Amino acid sequence: MSNRTIKILLCDDNDNFRQLLTQYIKALPGVEVVGEAIDGVDVIDKTETLNPDLVLMDLSMPNQSGLDATKTIKEKWPNKSVIILTLYEDSVYKELADEFNADGFIAKSSIKTQLPAVIEDKMRK
Which of 16, 19, 31 is nearest to 117 (CA)? Predict the structure, then answer.
């Protein structure tokens, strides 16, 4: 395991969820939350300025959806990892995440069990 820090950008329009997730991530080893975005337009701007390794992206947001923002980020910065976060565990959303070039998909109810593994995988690369 490398000792580099993984820089994470969170994107979710729900302030309470974003704050809880930020607190949770900050408690994990080897990570730094470099910023928070509130919609798809904001996350694209912040990906450019903050240069995160990993973007955690909500699906349904105002102004621009997480899927459209994911597609844009992956086209502009193919080396960035984007993980879709959603309330829905439906396989349709997993297919959409794949279609829009996301690197993964985590149901919000499974974040505490799945996110640490995603971060560890990122650290190994």
Answer: 31
